[in-house]
Please model this.
Amino acid sequence: MDWTPPAVAPRADAALTARLRQRIDHLTKPLGALGQLEALMLQAGLLQGRVDPRLDAPQVLVFAADHGLAARGVSAYPSDVTAQMVENFLAGGAAISVLARLHGLPLTVVDAGVRGARAVRPGLIVRPVAPGGTADASLGPAMSRAQCVQALELGREVVGSVPGNALVLGEMGIGNTSAAALLTAHFTGAPLAACVGRGTGLDDAGLARKLEVLAQVAQRHAGVATPLEALAAFGGFEIAALAGAMLQAAHERRLIVVDGFIVTAALLVAHALRPAVLEACVFAHCSDEAGHARALAHLGARPLLALDLRLGEGSGAALAWPLVVGAVALLDGMASFDSAGISGRDASTATA
Ligand SMILES: O=C(O)c1ccc[n+]([C@@H]2O[C@H](COP(=O)([O-])O)[C@@H](O)[C@H]2O)c1
Ligand SMILES: Cc1cc2nc[nH]c2cc1C
Model:
């Protein structure tokens, strides 16, 4: 499949790493006492190429699309809910709407292929790759090669159209834990059964049926070779757009706050194409959905939170956002041992 991802070069800057480490270690706290936030400080500084990273015009982007495979009864909810939730996002009543408002983050919803027609409004980008969503992956590829490239490019363009240097990414799409499970099994090598979960809340019988259907889909597409072939085989448009968005964001050295299972599945694709995309990624939480922990382990990721969330729509990433803000603010605003006249560790050994 012909598509060249944007360049995402790894940046191993030993001098800047040493300066950041020095700065972090001299803040007025016991060495290492800010734990994972110190790793975040270092990451933000390296990403931006400066010892004093800043968060500028952060944005929430939620990519939405429908899945043909939903017709096979793999979700606890009907596909209609995708379009209905898009309206809820825009009306301000969804979890992500509340959290984005709370944190002063502009929310943009991207219709990458949600069933039904909708008018363009502020906060909504309508760019369906196919108006009805993806095709049923149990019958053939969820999307054509051309559609796959179109969705990847959509994600890139959306990122290019919004300001700022940090993105909180989410998704919405009934059936998309199925696509995410298939992608996770494909990219991590974990057994499919370990990657398939209850999604929106299937009962035991529903989960067994979902696993049966997904095993057929995996079997049908067992020959997929490249990352883009896997993405096209399993879908969906919102996942492909997210992969494109993450690659573009990493290319521009924007910070990406990764939400749950589905956004991480999109990252598996992006990572397979450009491994250095991880340098831009902050992992918000470990979802309750089976398979997310596998994907995170494959990426060597350590998420900030574990709240048993399984909502999606960027809600976990928005909940973790204040931790990112906190880390950057602490790096910027805390006094150093020298500036505050506080005795460092060396003083205790000197008097011992
Ligand atoms: O982000 C997650 O980890 C997550 C886990 C389970 C479900 N979801 C959300 O639920 C929808 C997909 O669930 P399902 O059962 O329809 O495949 C989709 O809109 C996701 O945003 C999201
Ligand atoms: C109501 C509802 C809200 C959601 N938000 C993200 N996925 C969702 C799935 C459902 C069913």
In short: The radius of gyration is 21 Å. Residues 59-329 form a domain with the Rossmann fold fold (CATH 3.40.50.10210).
